[in-house]
Specification:
The complex is a heterodimer of chains A (about 280) and B (about 325).
Chain A: H1 2-33, H2 37-42, H3 55-63, H4 66-97, H5 103-114, H6 122-131, H7 138-142, H8 149-160, H9 165-172, H10 177-188, H11 190-206, H12 209-214, H13 223-232, H14 241-261, H15 263-276
Helix pairs in contact in A: 1-14, 3-14, 4-8, 4-11, 4-13, 5-8, 8-11, 13-14
Chain B: H1 10-39, H2 61-67, H3 72-106, H4 114-126, H5 129-139, H6 145-152, H7 167-174, E1 185-186, E2 189-190, H8 191-194, H9 200-225, H10 230-238, H11 243-254, H12 256-270, H13 275-280, H14 292-301, H15 306-335
Antiparallel strand pairs in B: 1-2
Helix pairs in contact in B: 2-15, 3-9, 3-12, 4-9, 10-11, 12-15, 14-15
The chains are: A mainly alpha (about 280), B mainly alpha (about 325).
């Protein structure tokens, strides 16, 4: 009895320690966004800004490209998410349910593509965008992100788990492939669609390397790209930590909101990796 | 099975359905790889098209410069391999052990508020790598939070991002051992250079990455832990096994597949570190945070040597593909 009590106490102590380790950086980020520069430099650990100033937030909106980056991020994220969800569910449906020659080869190719590490595609993607005349444009920023192999795989796995009998009734009623997909199967795929939407949203909102090789014009920067420029690029001069932390904070908020609302989907998604192996 | 008639219209529909994804993936994944393979055999400088006759053909020159030709190209590449190897060597075990430890604690049935702790540990994994790099840059600044904590314990923290000294070098120095094996070496680096250990600057990046990835892997371990049959644990307890024995002989063997997955995913991921390097150090100080991924980017987009940059990409590609194949093969063996 005493032992279990002691071990429970120890368990909580460890948990609280790690919770601090994992969350305190965010506390520091929030607190220092509202500090003066000298206060941030003198008391970086303090969770309470004194005095509380919103100078850096004002400067983020008036003195940096932040509003442009935000607009671009919203545009890219919305278009990419819609595209990914639509194209991935169409392709996933075809690979799972439609019988057509070349299907097996396509799926094998898809698995191979999933193994291609994104980082080694940096120069290659630039080459293609340049060759197609899409470099430094919204199309270059958006179109390459519209389809992802993992999303197609997720949808195919889901459709594989739907019983065939569902479609048979509709087929007897004379529904064509598109009707079947749009009105019968897709509405059933809601959980998979939500997962995919969240994955696509966070993925494209946080996407950084692709923006690095697809655009150069600051008017086309998304938030991560603008932020990186603010820190290490031409704008990086001086410390200005409250400003940088504030901008990073604003970039994190949308994902944080989505995370809090759809927490169980995130967790399920990560756990799925462990089951599949 | 696939008779005509009722399924007869599926052929065009099938291709129509996969067409958008197929075109985009073909255009922006498959085609790029082939184009880059060509460019890696040239000395294209980014001007005009790489497919005209004016572009000097280099054959395997870009590759031999990385491995056999003496010079800066090889030295930088080997330095980046060394740096990344130390990074992998520290990040993978630490994140795996931390993730497993957290999962074991959070999985305890008696604890309250488990949901909160799981969320807290997992949250860093979903945030932007760039945004979080900014936060860690501030924390590891000279007068930043990390050094403030260290000073509480009477320690003077280093100037993290301008300290190129390697940990192993520091350790040897503190033992009074002066540099040795500085005369000989392989691939353009002396044995002493190979032995440096991760630099102080790299340690800051390592701590950031461990912090962001442990949560994801914790969730994987958690899922696996929930599949461990309760009877197994009970049987062990009846047999008089203590907590540690239970963990070693009952729980860990059950977690083998997940551990294996976490380690290989970690290996594949750590060879791709890029965003954090770009934001936090750009390969500095003294090239001790240079990694192959960042080097290939820098070589192409800053030095305008696209041929060498692409060649570095392919070598990195090869490293990662080998690790992926290893993972798939061992996973399949396990399944069958």
């Amino acid at each position: 009895m005493i032992r279990t009590l002691a071990s429970r106490f120890l368990g909580y102590a460890i948990l609280i320690f790690f919770a601090l380790v994992f969350l305190y950086p965010f506390v520091i980020q929030i607190a220092n966004s509202f500090k003066t520069e000298s206060n941030a430099a003198d008391n970086p650990l303090s969770p309470i800004p004194s005095p509380v100033v919103t100078d850096s937030l004002v400067r983020i909106f008036e003195g940096t490209g932040f509003p442009t980056w935000l607009g671009n991020s919203v545009l890219v994220t919305v278009v990419v998410t819609i595209g990914r969800v639509l194209f991935a569910s169409m392709a996933g449906y075809a690979l799972s349910r439609l019988r057509f020659p070349g299907r097996k080869a396509l799926f094998a190719g898809l698995l191979a593509l999933m193994a291609v590490p994104p980082v080694v595609l940096l120069i290659p993607k630039f080459l293609v965008l340049n060759q197609l005349g899409m470099y430094n444009s919204y199309s270059g920023l958006i179109v390459p992100l519209l389809a992802d192999a993992t999303g197609i795989f997720v949808m195919k796995q889901f459709f594989d788990s739907v019983p065939v009998s569902v479609e048979e009734a509709a087929r007897i009623d004379g529904a064509g492939s598109f009707r079947m997909f749009w009105s019968v199967v897709l509405p059933m795929a809601k959980p998979a669609l939500i997962t995919l939407t969240i994955l696509s949203f966070t993925g494209s909102w946080n996407e950084f390397p692709h923006t690095l090789v697809s655009v150069q014009d600051p008017g086309l920067f998304t938030l991560p790209r603008g932020l990186a420029d603010l820190v290490s690029g031409s704008l990086g001069a001086g410390t200005q930590y409250p400003l940088k932390l504030g901008a990073a904070l604003l970039a994190t908020i949308p994902v944080a909101i989505i995370f809090v609302i759809f927490q169980r989907y995130f967790v399920r998604d990560a756990a799925a990796g462990a089951d599949k192996g | 099975m696939a008779t005509k008639g009722i399924r007869g219209n599926e052929r065009p529909a099938g291709w129509l359905f996969v067409a958008p994804a197929l075109i985009i993936l073909g255009l922006f994944m498959l085609l790029p790889i082939l184009m880059a393979l060509w460019v890696s055999l040239t000395r294209w400088n980014g001007q005009g098209s790489p497919f005209t006759g004016d572009v000097p053909f280099a054959g395997l020159g870009n590759y031999t410069r990385l491995f056999t030709d003496e010079g800066l190209a090889r030295q930088d590449f080997m330095t980046s391999i060394r740096n990344n190897a130390y990074y992998v060597f520290l990040v993978v075990p630490i994140q795996t052990v931390l993730a497993l430890g957290l999962a074991l604690i959070v999985n305890n049935r008696l604890l309250k508020g488990k949901g909160f702790f799981r969320t807290a540990f997992y949250f860093p994994s979903v945030t932007s790598s760039v945004a979080i790099s900014v936060v860690f840059l501030f924390m590891f600044a000279n007068g930043g939070a990390i050094n403030a904590i260290l000073s509480v314990f009477g320690l003077r923290g280093p100037q993290w991002f301008s300290d190129p000294r390697g940990l192993v070098h520091l350790l040897l120095e503190s033992l009074g051992i002066s540099p040795f094996l500085t005369e000989s070496g392989v691939f353009g680096l002396t044995w002493w250079d190979w032995l440096s250990g991760p630099s102080v600057a790299m340690c800051a990046i390592i701590s950031l990455v461990v912090w962001t990835t442990s949560g994801t892997f914790m969730v994987m371990f958690l899922a696996a832990l929930q599949n461990v049959p309760v009877q197994l644990e009970e049987a062990g307890r009846i047999d008089g096994a203590n907590r540690w024995q239970l963990l070693r002989h009952v729980i860990l063997p059950q977690l083998r597949p997940t551990t294996f997955l976490v380690v290989t995913l970690g290996l594949i991921g750590t060879w791709q570190v890029f965003d954090q390097i770009y934001v936090m150090s750009q390969g500095n100080p003294a090239k001790t945070t240079l990694t192959p991924a960042f080097l290939s980017y820098r070589t192409a987009f800053r030095d305008f040597d696209y041929g060498s940059g692409a060649a570095i990409s392919f070598v990195l590609f090869l490293i990662i593909v080998l690790l992926t194949l290893l993972q798939r093969r061992l996973t399949r063996e396990r399944d069958s």
